[in-house]
Amino acid sequence: MKKIIITLFVLLVYSLSFSQNVNQFDENGKRHGIWKKTFKNTNVLRYEGEFLHGKEVGVFKFYKNIRKKAVLTATRTFNENDNKTYVKFFTSRGKVISEGPMDGKLYIGAWKYYQKTSDELLTLEHYDNKGNLHGERFVYYPNGQIAEEQNYNNGKLNGVSTWYAANNVVLKAFIYVNGELHGDSKYYNSKGELITEGRYKQGKKHGIWKYYENGKLINEKDFSPKGKYKKK
């Protein structure tokens, strides 16, 4: 009985000592050391992390209140030099949903999104320092095969965009300029056979569009201003 009392006393002292070192301020009134916050009117943890004279450092953990339990929803790894962090988002079961760098609230650099039922990539995209999609963007099938391949420039689609079947057969290929369809476009069936081809001009079909069946031309339509939608 005496040992139990001593043990409980030690735990109580440790708890009180620990609590006194949490949520502290430095001499300038800035948050310093370990901080923990709970959801309003609960004891459920909302976030925890460390401040260095007002600046977040190291790993911060953020939680959701699910049935009165703190469930990890995200982590942000800070450094002392700037506002850039490395962020991970989690499902309620602890699986990583996505991860990548941020500058304040802006997504920057390479971001990875994962398949719902595995750790394989679902999407890989890139952002510039202003938070705009920039560069290559890929979407993947669960087997790792590319489903979509696109390119962005300052947040807008630019260049060739290609869609694939799960067996790597091209299904369609478009050209974008400054976010609009502009240039040659082709559609294929699941066998990789060309079924439609034509051009877009500033987002609209333009000129002669050709339609195929079993490799043979079966129809043409003129989408130019004077011959719009007329068969050739």
Automatic annotation (TrEMBL):
**Gene3D superfamilies referenced in this protein's UniProt entry, alphabetically:** Histone H3 K4-specific methyltransferase SET7/9 N-terminal domain
What name does the UniProt record give this protein? Toxin-antitoxin system YwqK family antitoxin
Q: Which UniProt keywords apply?
A: Signal
User: Does the UniProt entry include the keyword Signal?
Assistant: yes
Parts forming coiled coils:
none
The secretion signal range is 1-19
The answer to whether keyword Transit peptide applies is: no
Against InterPro entries, the record matches this protein to: MORN_2
